[in-house]
Amino acid sequence: MLQNKLLLFAILIIISPVLFALVYQPSSFSLSWNQGRGGWLFAMTFIVAEIIGVKVLVLKKRVIMTIPFAAAVFTYLISLDYGLRQYIQNSAKFYNVNLVHSWTWLWDFVILGVFVIAAVTLLFGKKWIRIAPAGPIFLCGSAIILSLDAFFPYDTLGPLQYVVPYLVKLNVGIINFFDLGTAIARDNLMFLKGDHGSMALQVFWPSAGVHSVIIYSLVMMAFLLKMNIAPKRKAMYFVIGITGTIIVNMVRIFSLSLFVLKISSNPAEFEEFHGVAGEIMFLPWLFAYLFIVMALETRRMKKITA
User: Fold this and answer.
1) 30 or 260, higher pLDDT
2) pTM of the model
């Protein structure tokens, strides 16, 4: 009973910065991947799902040692409103950052990622990588992607941009096949004409969802690492997930095109939809897929044991 209470207290400490930010700065939880902390909510969900019910001895003194680290994150969040946010934005020029938005938000993911890793290391030692890897890796992966976008925006990072023209052509092919409007593809450009006018869309690797494939790969590898199943089954789950993630990205590009063709070609309205269309599809898919894999394997192990 005492161990369960200690574990719940430890979970509460780890997720306390997210809960604090939700109350203190609720408007910062935009689902747009480079304009807010929406990803924090999914990281919190991963952390809770992995740690709750863990059959590992947790020492009270180690739980208490995580509190100062949480307090440091609180201090960071409060300091943002007292000049720190402006300082981070101004430092972008010094480091030759091209996209200030991504540069600014990446530090939120760095800070929370470092805190979570420190907390789970204190609680579980080196075993944390097998006990609760998904949350920390999701946060650190998001920080890496934001840093790439900050320093190599648009199409300057060739390898990540390579697949985009093929996704654009496929999307245009689907639009023309179903006769939803006029669509023309040229490299990473789409020329769309629908019921409310026309618009040219230039697609870059983050908008095409390439970042979500990278984040999925990191989280899924960490998740599969802790599962005691045959390598062939791990490979099968990984490939199915990659395929699903690509399909989700295609749905995202298609939905953006459909918005222009059937709802509005107004740039401001399009940007509002564009800001949430990616993460609102990818992050629920990622969590749902991990839950399905875990449920299937749990059911399978129960059958084998029976």
Assistant:
1) 260
2) 0.85
